[in-house]
Amino acid sequence: MGNKHNSTGFKIRSPLSIFIVICLCCFFYILGAWQKSGFGKGDGIAVQMTKQTDCHIFPDLNFETHHNDVEIVEPSRPKAKVFKACDVKYTDYTPCQEQDRAMKFPRENMIYRERHCPPEEEKLHCLIPAPKGYTTPFPWPKGRDYVYYANVPHKSLTVEKAVQNWVQYQGDVFKFPGGGTMFPQGADAYIDELASVIPIADGSVRTALDTGCGVASWGAYLMKRKVLAMSFAPRDNH
């Protein structure tokens, strides 16, 4: 009995279900056709927005910030201060080692030999001029042995240190033969003696300190052996 009742109900509901499905299909078909025709509410809004919005093409876009209406001004570069040349009498002027000023200090404990820099009111605000006839120095290594006399127009060392063979005056140049108190045979020969007990040739020694030098010949001749020397000369009277 149960199977027969269920079979009858299935037959009754089947045509109704088919009818409902057909109606839904027709409804959605008509709805889709209506929206596609351009009369839908969504399409109408899109059309209205397109008409009301003006589109402009700008060839140049400005990406600067516009937080306010104040014009952006680029900061101006500070102008370089131009200094005039000092008087010719200052050609040999060395601010903290000026001889005339140093002689005004006490001789006690050799205070006058110390470094005395001028106070603010005595400072020069000009460019120290080059000696008259100044010439571009010789390139290295010739510049190690020769200096134009016009660049350092003082012959006192050629007289006072003539015995030590520091510097010689020849024509319009000074010649530095590499001599000195410690180098009667020349700086090169002295370095050769050092090399016999110190490994210089193999690069073990790369730097050297030269204190109490004269014209720094020892440091100059060490350069060709790839040793860099720092030379400190004492302050002298000449």
TrEMBL record:
- One GO BP: methylation
GO cellular component entries = endosome; membrane; trans-Golgi network
Which key words tag this protein in UniProt?
Glycoprotein, Membrane, Methyltransferase, Signal-anchor, Transferase, Transmembrane, Transmembrane helix
Q: Which family does it belong to?
A: Belongs to the methyltransferase superfamily.
**Membrane topology qualifier:** Single-pass membrane protein; Single-pass type II membrane protein
Q: What is its main location?
A: membrane
A GO molecular function term, named singly, is: methyltransferase activity
User: Highest lineage ranks of the organism?
Assistant: Eukaryota, Viridiplantae, Streptophyta, Embryophyta, Tracheophyta
Query: What InterPro entries is this protein classified in?
Result: Put_SAM_MeTrfase, SAM-dependent_MTases_sf
UniProt protein name: Methyltransferase
